[in-house]
Amino acid sequence: MNSIKLLFFLASIIFAFSSSAEEQYQHEINFGLINVDTFELFSTDFSEFPVFGGTYRYYFEGLSGNLPSHIESHLEQKSWVQYDINLLFGLAPSLSGQYYFDNGLNLEYDITYLPNFLSLNEARNFSVLSDFVVNKALNNQWQLGAGFVGIYNNESSHSFGYDRNDVDQFYMPTFQARYTDIQGSTGWDINSRIVFFRDYLSWSNKVTYLASSTTSYKVTASLSRFRDDENYDFDDLEFGEIYFQISGSREHWFSKQSSIDIGIGLLNLLSEDHDGIPWLPVFELNGKHRF
Fold this sequence. Notes:
- By secondary structure, this protein is mostly beta strands.
- The chain has a single domain (about 25-290), classed as Beta Barrel (Porin), CATH 2.40.160.
- About 10% of the residues lie in helices and about 60% in strands.
- The protein has two helices and 14 strands; from the N terminus they run αββαββββββββββββ.
- Strand 3 and strand 4 form a beta hairpin.
- The longest helix has 19 residues, at about 1-20.
């Protein structure tokens, strides 16, 4: 009888230990074809692959998967760093991340190296794209941020025995806002961002509805406006080019570790002579796995 009681006692200890030691996930791999959220030809969001590629993300603290998986790191304010490669610019590497401080501040950063970057006017040997934003949480729902986007182009050439090296760099201010309202496992996550310069304007808005802890729906709309070197009338829409994109996607988590994301987007580009590229549909199919 005593041996039976001892077995029950040991079993209860083992069960309590196993149920309290919850599994945590610090590694995340995202891979697939097309990312309609960031498929913007003149976007300043360089951290996610636009055509084909993959990302590896490391969380400094483990995720439990108990909160809505789509934005768990934001809700729990857990910092992360991510490495991204894509085939659009020849496996251009990108390093990005988000770091949360104790005073309600967090830093978003993104650095991308593009070899043989093809700009609007001429080919460059390489470019470095950077994006830094400091966000401040006003309360549990609202977050406001400000920062800059930097573009550094370097072109080297050799002709008639002379070496030529042209460097072009400029910075654009950016502002963004985020509203998150989650009740239980459902709610809204809305992101809005604007980047502007003398000859450039980019606006994007992402609305995510979390239907449950495992399913979310996202709608993204973006507008980019830029002009050529001969046009300095930024407000005259008869010149320059306008790029518009709208997309929708659905992400479903089969477990705390794996999800699939399916979406469709529409692209449109208006040129200087008002001849536009017809609406071009693009499709998204991505997978995500945490371990």
